[in-house]
TrEMBL record:
The gene is mtnA. It catalyses: 5-(methylsulfanyl)-alpha-D-ribose 1-phosphate = 5-(methylsulfanyl)-D-ribulose 1-phosphate. This is Methylthioribose-1-phosphate isomerase. Substrate binds at R51, G52, A53, R94, Q199, N250, K251. Pfam families: IF-2B (PF01008). InterPro entries: IF-2B-related, IF-M1Pi, IF_2B-like_C, Initiation_fac_2B_a/b/d, M1Pi_N, NagB/RpiA_transferase-like. Belongs to the EIF-2B alpha/beta/delta subunits family. MtnA subfamily.
Amino acid sequence: MTTTTALPYSVQWDDTHITLLNQQALPTITEFIKLYSVEDVFDSILKLKVRGAPAIGLTAAFGVALGANQDGSTDLGEFKQNVTKHIKKLASSRPTAVNLFWALKRMENILQAAKSIPAAKEALILEAKAIFTEDEEMCRKIGEHGLSLFAEGDSILTHCNAGGIATARYGTALAPFHLAKERAFPIKVYACETRPVLQGARLTAWELMQSGVDVTLISDNMAAHTIHHKQINGIIVGADRIAANGDTANKIGTLGLAILANHYGIPFYVAAPSSTFDLSLESGTSIPIEERNGDEITFIQGVKIAPDNVKTFNPAFDVTPNHLITSIITENGIISPDYVKNIPLFVN
Ligand code: MRU
């Protein structure tokens, strides 16, 4: 892909700190914040200043490199213990996106193999940078494969933000749209607002408009009507964790859209890099689903919209069963059912 997307990098390593595009401030404020400690990194992941499965993983990897680089120990054993604590802390930030644990495992392997503190510090920075560069490459390839599934003039619906700002660059579900724009390939995108924290309205609409992609925002409850009346040709979403049988955890609301796609007979695509697969899980029933504070439902952008003390249930993700997924787009190609048989041919 030769795209020169105008989007800024949402995560950057700057030697003494990490620079983040603050995704909580978008779209009204485009603000870059500097993270100087592992605590800052943990807090930014927890509070969704950085979000999206691949971006969480690579930010945590840079967080480990940052913590290691700042460590003043002279004893290798003590150094390894300190960095292991940072890894554990970062692993406790969010439970669903497996990219977090995948990236931290890579960092832990580098840490354990190191023979000296200076060598460990250098190798950890290099590994975090490699995770970043590989993610950028994977997303570019996902864009190519994804675009091959669309025809000129298609209208495609998406949910949440699986874009450039949720990854190193380009995105997963949004990568085909950035590529289409580069190639003057006409395609219309409908973005669901994605309650409760509005990643679709605040981030996807902003990101696609930055790149000049034709995007129309709808509220979540308009999806069925829009699919029916606007000739939607397909739905594409990202993923936070894909089990060995293809069951896919993604932003809450994804399951409803997959059921709608099935009802209306349109394809339902999942786009994700191999770092999002968790082949240790047989099915989606074992994927841990994050439950977040009910304030995300009872307040919208700081404004209270529900009675005091109302009971809430706020799962951040749902699991779409494999039979509702037409295909899974990865950097290694497009996986079709039977997923149990075919996923190992593309992902290991
Ligand atoms: O809670 P979020 O905003 O981190 O949820 C993000 C999603 O569900 C994305 O669709 C997924 O992480 C893929 S990002 C390429």
